[in-house]
Structure formats: C-alpha cells, structure tokens
Predict the 3D structure of the following.
Amino acid sequence: MHTTPESLLRLPEVENIAGMKKSKLYALVKEGQFPAPVRIGPRSVRWKASAVRSWIDGLQAGTGKEDRA
C-alpha cells in the first residue's frame, strides 16, 4: 500500500488491498471484523489507510478476526 497513514482509500482500493469484494467487506464491517468507513459526504465513504493497515497487520500477527477460508 503506497499511502500515508492519513490517506483515505476509495472502495476499489480497499477491495484490492483486502482481496475481497464490497459485499464481503460490508458484512465484515457489520460483524465488527473490518474497519468501518468514514462518511465524507451524503453518498461518499472512504476508509482510513491506517485502519486498513492495522487490520492487515493483525492478520499477519495471527490476531485478526477474519476467517479467510
């Protein structure tokens, strides 16, 4: 991920980074297993790059909640 921790990521970027599609990401958000997006407008959301990075780091450390099977 070539971003700063303060970067805001669009859905296609998050899908690419996480390796999941929109429906799976939002299901994980609902279950509290993936960072929730930040609303930046009435019909627009972004994900904090730092939150997505922390989620990935948690998976690599074996502490992530996501079952990737």
Q: What stands out?
A: The two ends are 23 Å apart (CA to CA). The first strand starts at residue 8 and ends at 9. The mean pLDDT is 88. The CA atoms of residues 9 and 34 lie 14 Å apart.
